[in-house]
Write a structure and sequence with these properties.
Layout: E1 19-22, H1 28-37, E2 41-44, E3 49-52, H2 57-67, E4 73-76, H3 79-89, H4 95-103, E5 106-109, H5 112-120, E6 127-128, H6 135-145, E7 152-156, H7 163-171, E8 175-179, E9 182-185, H8 191-201, E10 207-210, H9 213-225, H10 229-237, E11 240-243, H11 246-254, H12 268-289, H13 302-311, H14 321-326, H15 347-355, H16 358-363, H17 365-379, E12 384-385, E13 401-404, E14 408-411, H18 418-422, H19 429-432, H20 434-447, E15 453-458, H21 460-469, H22 477-485, H23 487-511, E16 515-520, H24 528-545, E17 552-556, H25 563-569, E18 573-575, H26 582-589, E19 594-596, H27 608-622, E20 628-629, H28 642-656
Parallel strand pairs: 1-2, 1-10, 4-5, 4-7, 5-6, 7-8, 10-11, 12-15, 15-16, 16-17, 17-18, 18-19, 19-20
Antiparallel strand pairs: 3-9, 13-14
Helix pairs in contact: 3-5, 6-7, 7-23, 7-24, 8-10, 9-11, 17-20, 20-23, 21-22, 21-23, 22-23, 23-24, 24-25, 27-28
């Protein structure tokens, strides 16, 4: 198992000639020298570079706020960031004025490096965050030391936005100003990095050293772009992986890479010294037993646990093409299912609907099971999806949800403030939504292990937009107004929805759902910055909480500008609507995630020959690559001819057969 280096090395540091790959950039020369000093054979492969922002208006805005006394707390995350921030601010304002204004705020340093940079300016930090000084320690320390409610808090960022930190500050009532000072990008000369990745993939290295989370992101991006992502991961599994600390380790685990060693103190020198003392022994154990060594008490990523669970599965459905596609394994043909496949376009559905209300159909398990199974049998699709509605978790919230015949769902008592949110009673899925689990059990029995069953829920943003708007919307004015004017209420509501949604999805998994799909139908109304700040942490928490035994499909509409962020939020498969080119979108996402989609639903009104031509074009864009699930870009429309739907399913099966 993995273990942190909580005990000091028991032997003198000596790499004994191990081949060490380090992805360090800023301290590349020092890293190489230190590895040689301890008897290692270094390969330095810079994985990123810092690029100052060319027109950093945010830094100048911060300076003006600082001078005007409109900043209460200043959080500095890196020493380099402190120096670069002052360099930019001093192009317009005198250093002495800036330092005097900063000294009047509560200054917070994330560890010794920003503290040292502040002392260069004769400012002693009021608060220094202790190791491992992640965003969690920042929030915990500030919560103990400072009353954040109503405070104006500026955060000096470092390369990428820490959405968890910003959301946590806002959830505690702070007004947050993010101040970026530089960005991370790939090195200009990538040849050393590519050569190192190929060496690891070929088994020609013994130890890999990662010193930042952004390194991990860039390393994996380049490995996938070079087409050696799987080989690179396999190479890492046969060698020692050393991480400088928890943030870097977390990023490695999100890519299903286990960590063999973290230093007692999260510094580069400590990391290399402890690796020199312990790497040879760890490597010997791994090569003999093929055992992985886990960091003590660190949660394994959902993706890694799912791989373990599926690898050991004895389920008759384990080798079904739909589930294999979710795992990006080769399949005999491209599996196909269709959103809203049990819907008003089917006469069998309409006959049931004539006798029962929509909500009654959802809440009576025998009716939900009937229309679910009928659609699978009529269409010949490769997956069933339980008949339900994304808004069902809102029913027990007591907000007055009702379904109007022609106008869609209406919420009589929308949530517009923190007080409204706090009136929502505690909700347990088993008590309030157990009828969905009962319907899943009925479908599971009727399908008799022939066809996988998809459970689903609405994503937090989509549910929140209904709760705030009181129904559907075009501009989402009330939703965005709440986000912008009362972020504490927004995050509290999103946290509540995320908890209920995760509980509801796991109820479905426990009842027998083989796959989960998360629908974020309205998130395309947001830009990337708002998605990062107000949505991503909550969607990520839902997906991370889903039982690891099942894959998750993460779907949204009008999300061409959000695909990379959706991938960051999580999901084994990313759903694509018809507004993006599938080949281009998959290349942007990376081939270590599956894709689903993406025929325009209106195409099903065309003649079968045209439907076939359009399906062929999408299959060609997928290129036969493992991990493609054919679907529409959204749900089947009510007037769609049933025979056209069947023609599509048959065409996909025929044209994609390997």
């Amino acid at each position: 198992m993995e273990s942190r280096a909580d005990d000091k090395p028991s032997q003198a540091p000596d790499f004994n000639g191990l081949r060490v790959v380090a992805f360090e950039s800023r301290m590349a020369a020092e890293t190489a020298a230190l590895i040689r000093r301890f008897g290692g054979n270094p390969t330095i492969a810079p994985a990123m570079r810092e690029v100052p922002l060319e027109d950093n208006q945010a830094a100048l805005d911060f300076a003006l706020r600082l001078l005007d006394g409109r900043v209460d707390v200043s959080i500095f995350l890196t020493g380099v960031g402190v120096r670069e921030l002052f360099r930019v601010m001093e192009t317009r304002y005198e250093q002495a004025r800036l330092v005097a204004a900063l000294a009047r705020t509560t200054t917070v340093a994330r560890g010794p490096k920003p503290a040292a940079a502040l002392r260069e300016l004769a400012i002693e930090p009021a608060v220094t965050i202790a190791e491992p000084n992640t965003w969690r320690e920042i929030l915990a320390t500030l919560g103990d030391r400072i009353e954040l409610a109503g405070k104006r808090v500026a955060v000096q960022e470092y390369g990428v936005t820490n959405r968890d930190l910003l959301a946590g500050l806002e959830a505690r009532g702070a007004e947050v100003l993010a101040v970026p000072v530089y960005r991370w990008t790939l090195p200009v000369d990538r040849a050393p990095l590519i050569a190192a990745l190929r060496a690891i993939a070929a088994g020609a290295a013994d130890l890999a050293i990662f010193t930042s989370s952004n390194q991990v992101i860039n390393v994996m991006q380049v490995a996938e772009a070079e087409g050696i992502g799987a080989e690179f991961r396999s190479g890492l599994a046969r060698m020692v992986v050393a991480s400088i600390g928890p943030v870097c380790s977390h990023q490695l685990r999100t890519h299903a890479i286990a960590i063999d060693l973290e230093p007692e103190h999260f510094r580069l020198g400590h990391l290399i010294k402890e690796a020199a003392a312990r790497a040879a022994q760890i490597l010997a154990v791994k090569r003999v037993s093929s055992a992985r060594i886990e960091v003590a008490a660190a949660p394994r990523p959902r993706e890694a646990m799912r791989r373990d669970a599926t690898a050991a599965s004895n389920s008759p459905l384990h080798h079904h093409p739909m589930l294999k596609a979710c795992r990006r394994e080769p399949v005999p043909y491209t599996p196909v299912w269709l959103m809203r496949q049990a819907g008003r376009y089917m006469p069998e559905y309409r006959r049931v609907r004539e006798r029962h209300s929509f909500l009654e159909m959802c809440q009576r398990p025998e009716l939900a099971a009937e229309v679910t199974v009928t659609a699978v049998e009529r269409l010949g699709v490769d997956a069933a999806i339980i008949f339900a509605d994304i808004l069902l978790p809102l029913v027990p919230m007591g907000v007055g949800l009702r379904y109007e015949g022609g106008d869609g769902p209406v919420i009589e008592r929308p949530l517009r403030s923190l007080a409204d949110v706090e009136k929502i009673p505690p909700i347990t899925a088993a008590d309030s939504l157990g009828f969905v689990g009962d319907a899943i059990r009925l479908v599971r029995g009727a399908l008799a292990d022939r066809t996988p069953l998809i459970g689903f829920a609405g994503a937090p943003f989509t549910l929140a937009s209904y709760l705030v708007e009181g129904g559907g919307s075009r501009q989402y004015q009330a939703t965005k107004t709440l986000m912008y004017n009362d972020p504490a209420a927004w995050h509290r509501m999103m946290e509540m929805i995320a908890r209920v949604t995760a509980d509801y999805l796991n109820l479905q998994v426990d009842a027998g759902a083989d796959i989960i799909q998360l629908f974020d139908s309205w998130v395309g109304s947001l830009g990337p910055d708002d998605y990062r700040r107000f949505v991503l942490p909550h969607t990520r928490s839902v997906i991370a909480a889903v039982r690891p035994s099942v894959p998750v499909i993460h779907f949204g509409t009008i999300t061409g500008n959000l695909l990379e962020l959706m991938r960051e939020a999580g999901g084994d498969v990313i759903g694509l609507d018809w507004r993006v080119d599938l080949a281009q979108a998959w290349a942007r996402l990376g081939y270590d995630v599956g894709v689903q989609g993406n025929l325009d639903p209106v195409a099903l009104f065309a003649e079968p020959a045209e439907i076939r031509r359009r399906a062929r074009a999408i299959l060609d864009q997928a290129g036969g690559r493992p991990g493609h699930i054919f679907n529409l870009g959204h749900g089947i429309l009510p007037e769609t001819p049933v025979d056209h739907v069947i023609a599509l399913v048959d065409a996909v099966h025929e044209m994609s057969r390997r």
